Amino acid sequence: MNIHLNHTEAGTAGQVVTFSLIQDDRLHILHPQQIVAFRGPSNSRQDKLLNISGIYRKKKLIKSEITGPCQFVAALPPGFTMKEVQLTENSDLLYDFRHLFFYTDGVTMHTKIQKIKNMLITRDAVKMKFSGEGKIGLLTQGQVCQQELHPTAPLYVDAGSIIAYPENAHLELTVYGNNLASQHMNYHWKMTGHGSVLFQAGRENYKLQQDVNDEGLFKRILKEVIPFGNVIIK
């Protein structure tokens, strides 16, 4: 199986991903509505109902099972990108099921119940642990970053930006910095342990765009008060 991500025209138009499957390849697509072009035998695509837990977490009713040989193109929404992850034998990462775009045959999913306080923040009762030999595709906002955890030196990560973390990591919901800093930030996970954590770096981009594009109250007042202010002040 070959996966090609078109980065050159992503921007505001979104990203295009081309999947090329050979004989005996089988791919499970959890967002089949994003498939915009397909080449191959029509019976290569078989849509099936998700199980109850999948319907609850993905808010979707169906998935597509696609077998090779064939080729198809999926279009991702603006601001989103896809990361391909090769599973290893010792992988112990817990994932947010909502980020899952595809998985290959040979991948097994196990549900891990979260603690009550974690459920309230993440609004998800379970995390998913993948095992076996194969690949998964993660749908994220912006680039995916990877940071190593330390047994004693904590890493603070925006709680809503977390994609995956080691099963045995120690997590504590908190904020950091002085009083002013802690009052103007989202909740963060204070994380220690071994292994690496994955998080998306584009979740807060829209807020920065608003701040940059916002003229500000003082500037708007000057434009109204000063004669020809709209012409002079840019």
TrEMBL record:
Pfam families cross-referenced by the UniProt entry: AIM24 (PF01987)
Domain of life of the native organism: Bacteria
Protein name, per record: AIM24 family protein
Source organism of this protein record: Paenibacillus silvae
Lineage: Bacteria, Bacillati, Bacillota, Bacilli, Bacillales
